[in-house]
Amino acid sequence: LQITWVRRQIDALKAETRWHALARNALRDDLYQRHRDLCAKVSGELALKEPIVEQIDLWIEQHRVQTEYLRDLITEVQSGHQADYMSLSVILRQLGRLAA
Q1: CA distances from 19 to 5, 26, 42, 88, 100 (A)
Q2: What is the distance between the terminal CA atoms of the chain, rounded to a whole angstrom?
């Protein structure tokens, strides 16, 4: 789901003003919270006796519409322009929907 890529983009945001720095920190905090929520959701739905990688792949497949939409958003940002506050906010919102 490229969560590491998203974090790196947040870290790379320029903070020319105090408000930019606060917004960047808020995005980072939101990413960490959504990552935790997503991990909790996925781990709560997995069977511990089965191979974990296969189960995660199955979970992603079961949520294919949502995960593909997230991947499409990330691909669009990667190919079109540098990530900015607005595009990263939209990506984080989709991560939140996936974790809900």
Answers
A1: 23, 10, 34, 16, 29
A2: 15
